[in-house]
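Reminder to self: tokens first, then the designed residues, so the page reads top to bottom the way the pipeline ran.
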């Protein structure tokens, strides 16, 4: 509805004949001069029609008078005026359009789940459905209360001044929003000053959700909360891959170790000194790799997924071509001036560029290998017991950071192979290490039934995530680093990295051995001790019910 404005002028005027009927010398009289927009308007004084257009000047006796100005299709205006002896009162009035009658509101169910009419073609139905969704999103943009998806609660205690992440808890209220089965945890990104004002203006904010549709499926954008006169995108802690896509059972032989390639298309399982490569989507065995003389203790794929590397109790490392299962080379003989491990190879990890391989051994050493030549570039010492886990990342300025965990309950950090930090806090063997994608966080899992999150470079004590009744076997970050998956017993826990809360627990039928995210974070794969594979995916669609 348009806003209306009334202009008031109160001058003393000598009336001109061009304005209206001349006014003689008043005795106990005054006058009103009226101008309206539009000019055609009915002028009522004290209920009596005295004119149908303006400008007009009307003589009136002293005293109070009621003036009403009317025009079809316009909002009427009422004026209370006081006429004084010898005074001409001048007024200009703008008549505004009558507001449009509100249309009958379209129900949310009609917008989000319309029914196809018998006389509609499929193309016509989809076009109408798109128009309804556009109306829905327009209502969301206008912050119409009826289209509110839920409530957001800001968590001031967990605001991170460095990352500018402001954690929120979401309470989904609308049935249509609940149908998406979205997470209840997320965060917004806000500078400190904005975050402070957002908090001061109320920790509870309204939440809206834009939607779109294609064929018979609805999808959603990230939700937005309203504060400081604008929209703030609420980032979910990733759409969790919790919908079971497939499961299959291998040859039921007990396995000691397992690993997935980067795109989750192949996984390697270890039984004794035999390695088997499987196709994840079909369960088909692709290759059987033989060559180690003792049990294989660790396997890892190269960053490109074209190579599999295995470490064994026979103290050697073997490189295999993943596509054919062909043995490429064996590392461990004395090369140049450096030797391989003197005892079992217990852990392996590639650098991000795939050019170096880092291995940990029962001989308490960490070795850095040049993959192309098999040369040992560095031998790192300092642990008091055998190495049980290795993780590698690259920071700014091409600084390589190696994390090594051991049965001595300690983690050592090596910056470009220089030992700079020893992290203490676990009460038992370190079994799994993984860096976040940005390298700023290190997660460690232990037999002491805890996960610890360490800042890199270290500053202050770590945050501890408590796992009940089981040690931590495997860890994996999602690609954006806000979800951590852990394997403990037959449980796979999905943790919110910022809050430390378990967002979802998935079940493996048997004891889990390994877990991995796909490169886009939309899938999660796990393998159990009997070569049982489960693959979960993220589902953010709302199916249209016929």
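Designed residues (546 positions):
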């Amino acid at each position: 509805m348009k806003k209306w404005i009334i202009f008031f002028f109160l001058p003393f005027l000598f009336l001109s004949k061009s304005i209206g009927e001349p006014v003689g010398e008043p005795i106990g009289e005054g006058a009103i001069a009226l101008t309206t927009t539009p000019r055609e308007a009915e002028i009522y004084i004290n209920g009596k029609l005295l004119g149908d257009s303006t400008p007009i000047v009307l003589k009136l006796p002293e005293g109070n008078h009621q003036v009403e100005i009317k025009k079809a299709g316009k909002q009427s205006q009422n004026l209370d005026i006081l006429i004084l002896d010898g005074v001409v009162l001048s007024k200009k009035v703008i008549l505004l359009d009558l507001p449009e009658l509100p249309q009958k509101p379209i129900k949310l169910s009609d917008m989000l789940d319309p029914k196809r009419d018998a006389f509609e073609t499929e193309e016509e139905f989809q076009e109408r459905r798109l128009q309804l969704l556009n109306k829905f999103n327009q209502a969301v943009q206008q912050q119409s209360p009826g289209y509110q998806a839920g409530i957001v609660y800001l968590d001031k205690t967990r605001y991170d001044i460095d990352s500018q992440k402001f954690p929120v808890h979401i309470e989904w209220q609308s049935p249509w929003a609940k149908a998406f089965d979205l997470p209840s945890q997320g965060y917004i990104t806000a500078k400190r000053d904005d975050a402070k004002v957002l908090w001061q203006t109320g920790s509870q904010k309204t939440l809206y959700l834009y939607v779109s549709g294609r064929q018979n499926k609805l999808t959603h954008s990230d939700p937005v909360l309203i504060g400081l006169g604008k929209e703030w995108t609420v980032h979910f802690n990733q759409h969790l891959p919790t919908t079971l896509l497939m499961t299959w059972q291998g040859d039921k032989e007990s396995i000691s170790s397992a690993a997935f390639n980067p795109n989750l298309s192949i996984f390697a399982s270890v039984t004794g000194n035999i390695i088997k490569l499987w196709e994840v989507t079909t369960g088909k065995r692709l290759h059987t790799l033989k060559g180690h003389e003792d049990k294989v203790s660790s396997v890892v794929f190269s960053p490109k997924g074209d190579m599999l590397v295995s470490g064994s109790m026979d103290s050697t490392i073997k490189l295999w071509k993943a596509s054919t299962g062909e043995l490429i080379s064996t590392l461990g003989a004395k090369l140049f001036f450096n030797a391989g491990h003197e005892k079992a190879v217990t852990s392996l990890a590639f650098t991000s560029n795939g050019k170096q391989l880092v291995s940990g051994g029962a001989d308490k050493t960490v070795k850095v290998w040049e993959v192309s030549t098999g040369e040992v570039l560095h031998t790192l010492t300092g642990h008091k017991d055998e190495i049980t886990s290795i993780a590698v990342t690259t920071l700014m300025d091409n600084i390589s950071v190696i994390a090594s965990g051991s049965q001595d309950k300690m983690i050592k950090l090596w910056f470009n192979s220089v030992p700079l930090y020893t992290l203490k806090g676990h009460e038992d063997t370190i079994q799994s290490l993984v860096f976040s994608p940005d390298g700023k966080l290190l997660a460690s899992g232990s037999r002491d039934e805890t996960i610890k999150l360490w800042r890199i470079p270290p500053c202050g004590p770590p945050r501890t995530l408590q796992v009940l009744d089981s040690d931590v076997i495997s860890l994996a970050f999602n690609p954006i680093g806000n979800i951590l998956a852990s394997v403990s017993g037959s449980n796979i826990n999905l943790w919110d990295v910022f809050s430390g809360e378990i967002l979802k627990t998935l079940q493996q039928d048997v004891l889990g051995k390994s877990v991995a995210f796909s490169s886009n974070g939309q899938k999660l794969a796990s393998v159990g001790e009997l070569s049982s594979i489960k693959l979960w995916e993220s589902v953010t669609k709302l199916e249209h019910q016929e």
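The CA atoms of residues 211 and 391 lie 40 Å apart.
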